[in-house]
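Q: Got a minute? One more chain.
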Amino acid sequence: MIGPFSRIALRYVAGFLVAKGLLSGTDGDFLSSDPDVAFVVEAGAGFALGFAVEGFYWLAKRMGWRT
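A: Always. Here it is, folded:
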């Protein structure tokens, strides 16, 4: 489920960087279409979501909320 969202996010980020002149058009194409870059973004998003869930669980336990 994270895969499609991360590829869409990569396209927007690459488009923004190309529009600002920080990347060339070919670099933007590479960033948005390379499967290895997509895998790294997907893995990072997965880790970030996992840490967020565990952080909210810890916060709920600490504040005495129902878990």
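A: The chain has one domain: 2-63.
Q: Perfect, thanks.
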